[in-house]
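Re: the 596-residue chain
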Amino acid sequence: RDMSELDRLSSTQIKSVDVITNPGARYASTVNSVIRITTVAPVGEGFSFNDRITLGYKHYAYLFEQVNFNWRKKGFDLFGMINYENYRERPGFHNSSLQYLKSGIVQQNSSGKDMAKYPVYQGKIGLNYNVSSHSFGFYYDFSFKPSTSKGNSLTDRYINDEFSETLENLSDISRHNRQHLLSAYYSGEIGTWDLSANFDAMWQINDRHNTETDISTLNTERDFITVNDVENRLLAANIAASFPEWKGDIRFGTEISNIHRTDIYGGNADFISDNDIKISETTTALFAETEQTFGFVTASAGLRWEYTDSRYWQFGRLSEDQSRRYHNISSSASLSFSIGNVNTRLSYMRKTSRPAFEQLSSAIRYIDRYTYESGNPSLKPIYRDYVSASASWKDLVIELEYYSTKNYFMWQTSAYPGSDDVTLLTMVNMPRFNSFGAYLNWSPTFFSCWHPSVMAGVQGQDLKIIHVDRIMKLNRPLGIIRFDNAIHLPWDIWLNMDFSARTSGNGDNFYMKPYWQCNLGIYKSFAKDRWSVKLQLNDVFDTWRQDIISYDALSSISSKKFYDTRDMAITIRYNFNSARSRYKGRGAGNTDKDRF
C-alpha cells in the first residue's frame, strides 16, 4: 500500500519478482492480481537512513521530501519515516452536454479552471524483532492531507436550440483529511507449518467545506455553504497457516473486518438537503487453497467464503430496506504446464467488488442550479467471472482474457423529483455484459545494453445501454501499445525512453478518443550507490488529454479535461549505511481501506 517502499528498493536488494494473475483464495475476493517482490535478507547493524528529495515543475514548482531511518541491533529493528509533499495544479475542462427532458432538449456548453493545492504531512514509526524462525512487529502511521481549491466556470444553456441563460459558478473548497493507522503482525515456522497473522486498526477524519456562488442571467444569485464531515473506523485481522501435503502445500485461514462510518452532509440554503448516515459493517471470511506439482504440470485450486452484515442508519433510525447481508463464495483454479520451451497457464477466478462507501450514500449533493448527485444505498456488489490463458516462449508472452460482469456500477441521469428541468445523477447496477482482451509482450535484449519492452493489446466489450429510448451498442474495441526502452550507457548511466498510445473505442459507457504520450528519463548513481540522481521529463510533447463522451438513459456528455501532465523533475537520493527494516507484515482489511 505504500508505493514509497518501491522507491527505497535498489535492484541489489531484490531476490525475485512474481506476477500473480490468479492470486487465489488467500486474498480478498476484490483482488484481481498481485505483484509479489521477495527481497534479499537484510544484513548489517547500526544506524542507517536514506533521504529522497524531488524538485519538479509542471506550471507550478513542487517538492517531495522523504526521510527513512532504521536502527538495528541483532534481531531488533527500530524504523521510521517522515514525508512531506507540496503539490499544486490547475486543471481545466470543456464540457458539452445534451439532456432529453420533459421541458425539451437542453444543451449546456461549459468551461472552467481550478487552482488546487495538495500538501501532505506524514510520519511513521515502528518496531520489528526476529528470533530464530519467528518475527513480529508493529508500526504507527499518521498522515494529514489538507487541500484547497478555487474554481470558476461559465455555462451557456440552450433549450430546444434557443438560448436560455448564462451561468457562472465560483467555488472555494477546503478539505482536512487525517488518518491514524496502527498495524501489527506475527510470522513464524513451527515444524513444517508456516504461520502468519496481521492486525490493523485505522481511524480517518475527513471534512469538506464548500463556499459557492451561482450567478445567473435569468435567476437570482445564490450564495451558500455546504459541509460534509466523514469519520471512518476499521478494525481488521487475518490469520493464515500452510503446511506441505502430498506434492505441494495447503493453505487455509480466516479474515475479519469491522467498519463504522458516519457521513453528515448539510448546507445553509433551502435547496440543500441535509443527511445524517451511519454504516456499521462486519465481514468474515474463510479460505482454503492448495497447489500441487506433478512433473511438468502444476495445479492450484482455492475457495473463499465471505459473509457481510451491513447495517444502515439514517438520522439515527435503522433502515431495514437499505441494510444488507451477503453470502459470497469465490472460487479459483489454475493449471500450468510446459510444452517444450513454451510455458502455458490456464486460470479461472470469480471476483467481487463492493461499492465504495460514498457510492452507498443517500445524501443528495448540490452540483449546480440544474444538477444534483446522489449515491445509492441499494447498490449490489459487482461479480466477475474471469478466464485467462497465457503462453510464454523466451522473451515473448501472449495472454488472452475473458470476463463476464454482473451488476456493474454506472452513473445514470434521471429527472429530479418534482421538476422538469433539474436532473439527478445516481449510481445504478447494470445488466450482465462480457469483455475480452488479447495482449502480446516482447522484452528482448540487444547489444547487451538495450532493453526494449513492447506491449500491444486490444480490449473489447459487448455492452448495451438504453439511450434516449433506444438500444445503444458500445462495442468498439480499444487498441493499446507501449514501447519502453532502457539503455545502459557508458559510465553506468541509464537512459529511459517510454512511449504509450491508445486508439479510440468504448470502455464502460464511454467513447474514448485516442491519445499518445512520451516520457524521458536519465539516471546515474555515485559512490557505490550512496548517491543517485534521476532527471525525468514526462509528456514531452504535451499530448495527453482526457477526451471522452459518456452516455446514459437521458444524456450524453462530451468532456475534455486538461491537466499539467508535462512535468520536469529531478530526484536526488542519499543512502547512509543502506539497510531497511525486516518488517514482514502485510496488513489486514486492505480492500476495505480502498473503499474509504
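The helical segments are 4-8, 590-595.
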